[in-house]
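Long-time lurker, finally posting.

We've been working with Cell division protein ZapA (Salipiger mangrovisoli) and I want a structural starting point before designing mutants. I don't trust myself to interpret raw outputs, so I'm hoping someone here can both generate the structure tokens and explain anything notable. Sequence follows.
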Amino acid sequence: MSQIEVEILIGGRSFEVACQEGEEQYLQAAARMLDTEAQVLVGQIGRMPEARMLLMAGLMLADKTAGLEDRLRETEDRLRDAEERIAAMASEVRALRDAPPPEAERVEVPVIPRSVTEAMAELAARAEALAEAVEEKSAS
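Top reply, 14 upvotes:
Generated this for you. Predicted structure of Cell division protein ZapA:
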């Protein structure tokens, strides 16, 4: 691959930079990032020596990059923890699926004798009759 010259603009100043053919868009993207930081400096401080502007803009980008790397590390740690929990849960599910079913338990349900059921029905009928009589007396 051959090298080509690309003109970039940073902080209102033009620079000629060489790059490999086909990498121009990456260089332009990087230059735009550096220019964004340089424009902030120019807006805050005004004109400054070229070397100082580039140094400060580079440091600002490095600071942002370090912050992003920290966030990425934290995200990777959380992802690793989540993957470990998922693996543990999957193992537990497999163990439960592969375990033999529990033995059936014998459950005895008491049977209410017929005479008690009939007595309860008789009591319910009497209670309804009493309720009707009370309603009739209170209505009159």
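Before you design anything, note these points.
The beta strands are 3-10, 13-20.
The first strand starts at residue 3 and ends at 10.
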